Amino acid sequence: MEYIYAALLLNKLGKEITEASLKAVIQAAGVTADEAKIKTLVTSIKGVDINKAISEAAVVASAPAAGGAKQPEAKKEEKPKEEEAAEGLAALFG
């Protein structure tokens, strides 16, 4: 996850996400950088508009809440007939 966070940080700062910049951020955090993970991440996000991807993910994540998704109805607890009868008897004897 720290590699993705580093990429997001660089994106937020308007910096280019390169192997060298990712490695620098990771090392600045006190972590030994894994060159293979860095190369994989840089390759996989090449050409991706990170800001657009984040905004689309936010829309998808908030869609159920904004769309008024129905909450499951709480089940009404049914009392056994014996309890209902006992309550009725209690009313008679006040």
Jot down its keywords.
single chain, Arc Repressor Mutant, subunit A, elongated, 5 helices, mainly alpha, 65% helix, 94 residues
Structure notes:
There is one protein chain. By secondary structure, the protein is mostly helical. Helix 1 (2-12) crosses helix 2. It has helices spanning 2-12, 19-28, 35-45, 50-66, 81-92. Helix content is 65%, strand content 0%. The chain has a domain at 2-63: Arc Repressor Mutant, subunit A.
By DSSP, the count of extended strands is 0
Major β-sheet annotation:
none
- CATH fold category name of the domain at 2-63: Arc Repressor Mutant, subunit A
If you average the pLDDT, what whole number results? Answer: 83
Shape: elongated
What pattern of helices and strands is seen along the backbone? HHHHH
The CATH architecture designation of the domain at 2-63 is Orthogonal Bundle
Separate helix tally: 5
Uncertain spans: none
CATH class of the domain at 2-63: Mainly Alpha
For the record, give the distance between the C-alpha atoms at the N and C termini, rounded to a whole number: 65 Å
Residue share in β-strands:
under 5%
Helix proportion range:
55-70%
Query: Structural class of the secondary elements?
Result: mainly alpha
Rg calculated over all Cα atoms: 28 Å
